[in-house]
């Protein structure tokens, strides 16, 4: 509409700040309205959950367990050993899925893993093997494990082994390959397989020897906390964390009894991989959320994960049960000539970072991330402020400097999501829709609302049963 006196375009903007900013930049007279979508959940379920006498105490317990959990790097071992992962078995990101429903990047990573393990000698042979059910597929989360993007983990891959010094719980993650054409993005070319073989034959054994020789285990939670003070948010920006990890590991690495050329290659690889820390941060978050994995009456989310086709969540009050919906496609910035049509729907276990309260929830701690995923610095600040409305607590160990060192918004509350109409914000990479493409960009995405509506209905049913 137009202001009748001045003739200046006048706009009423509801809900999304980025639109208001863009219109103001074009000279429009913008009037912001604090509006949010009405709850989509059943009002009876909302009432049952809101009146559940167990909820407040259960949520306090769940949050306390998350806050108390620590994370120490104690070993590096092959998945075959640490998980008892047998041959012809592959783990993947997200909720359960079969070959027929797998997206392009997940298919590409599964094919690449079969070639890497020697179960097939050609792409076509690997595809036939997978299509015939000759390889068992299971989610990483079912094995206390997390994997970024496709998350495919095979028996010969080396895993970071992390332990919670409070509960003794363990969590695992494979080693980060770097960016570009990598297995986790669905690429499976000769260069990808050569890198995986080098990681198996050189990187893994050197890291194992180094980690085992350290006088004290690396406190990964402390590194994650420090990253937020240095401009990382812990999901799509890991520069400071990766450099701190390199600093802590280097003295032990150089003392490993291995050829100097291998030692140099390991240090060069870590130093050149800005996302090296991500695969340590993810199991750190997994440890904390697993500590709250079984708390009857709690409405706190303990898992958010995607397999490239579906998005799934779990809650403390419903344990290992998955609630799923169609994965959305991220919106953001693209590499080279790639565009929106090239991007696959959301994929990866890395949303465990947002579930823990960092990543997209701490965009205010890393305003430079907008140059990688899109948006503006005000968007980053506003996103973190909004996430406080969806969470149960603030984590004093994970502080956001620009917000006066306020603790990160932690403990996504299914009931708060329903009441506000807002959804969690996730920073993520984007894999190519076609198997073998690799990374095409990075951006922002939200879960489908169906996940939270289904979880709320299940929690409400539990509340009614508990009386």
Automatic annotation (TrEMBL):
Originating organism: Geodermatophilus pulveris
Any Pfam family matching the protein: AllG
Protein name (database record): DUF1116 domain-containing protein
Cited InterPro entries: AllG-like, OXTCase_su_AllG_h-dom
């Amino acid at each position: 509409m137009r202001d009748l006196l001045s003739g200046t375009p006048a706009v009423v903007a509801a809900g999304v700040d980025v639109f208001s900013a863009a219109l103001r930049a074009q000279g429009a007279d913008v009037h912001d309205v604090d509006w949010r979508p009405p709850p989509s959940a059943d009002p009876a379920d909302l009432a049952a959950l809101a009146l559940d006498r167990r909820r407040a105490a259960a949520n306090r317990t769940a949050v306390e367990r998350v806050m108390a959990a620590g994370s120490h790097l104690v070993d590096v071992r092959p998945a075959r050993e640490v998980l008892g992962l047998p041959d012809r078995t592959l783990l993947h990101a997200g909720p359960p899925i079969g070959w027929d429903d797998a997206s392009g990047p997940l298919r590409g990573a599964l094919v690449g893993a079969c070639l890497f393990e020697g179960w097939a000698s050609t792409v076509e042979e690997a595809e036939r093997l997978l299509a015939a059910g000759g390889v068992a597929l299971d989610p990483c989360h079912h094995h206390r494990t997390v994997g970024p993007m496709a998350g495919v983990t095979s028996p010969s891959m080396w895993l970071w082994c992390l332990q919670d010094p409070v509960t003794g719980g363990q969590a695992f993650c494979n080693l980060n390959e770097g960016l570009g054409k990598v297995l986790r993005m669905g690429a499976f070319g000769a260069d990808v397989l050569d890198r995986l073989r080098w990681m198996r034959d050189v990187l893994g054994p050197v890291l194992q020897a180094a980690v085992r020789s350290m006088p004290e285990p690396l406190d990964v939670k402390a590194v994650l906390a420090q990253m937020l003070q240095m401009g990382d948010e812990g999901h799509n920006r890991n520069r400071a964390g990766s450099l701190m990890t390199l600093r802590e590991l280097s003295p032990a690495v150089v003392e490993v009894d291995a050829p100097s050329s291998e030692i140099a290659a390991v240090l060069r690889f870590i130093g050149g991989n800005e996302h090296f820390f991500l695969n340590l941060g993810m199991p750190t978050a997994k440890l904390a959320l697993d500590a709250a994995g079984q708390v009857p009456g709690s409405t706190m989310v303990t898992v958010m994960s995607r397999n490239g086709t579906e998005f799934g969540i779990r809650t403390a009050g419903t344990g290992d049960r998955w609630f799923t919906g169609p994965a959305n496609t991220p919106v953001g910035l693209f590499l080279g000539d790639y565009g929106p049509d090239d991007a696959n729907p959301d994929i990866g276990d890395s949303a465990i970072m947002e579930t823990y309260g960092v990543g997209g929830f701490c965009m205010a701690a890393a305003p430079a991330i907008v140059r990688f995923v899109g948006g503006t610095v005000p968007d980053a600040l506003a996103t973190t402020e909004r996430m406080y409305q969806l969470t149960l607590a603030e984590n004093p160990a994970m502080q956001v400097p620009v917000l006066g060192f306020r603790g990160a918004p932690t403990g996504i509350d299914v009931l708060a999501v329903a009441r506000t109409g807002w959804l969690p914000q996730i920073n993520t990479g984007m894999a190519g829709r076609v198997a073998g493409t690799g990374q095409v960009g990075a951006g922002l995405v939200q879960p489908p609302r169906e996940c939270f509506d289904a979880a709320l209905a299940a929690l409400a049913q539990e509340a009614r049963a508990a009386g």
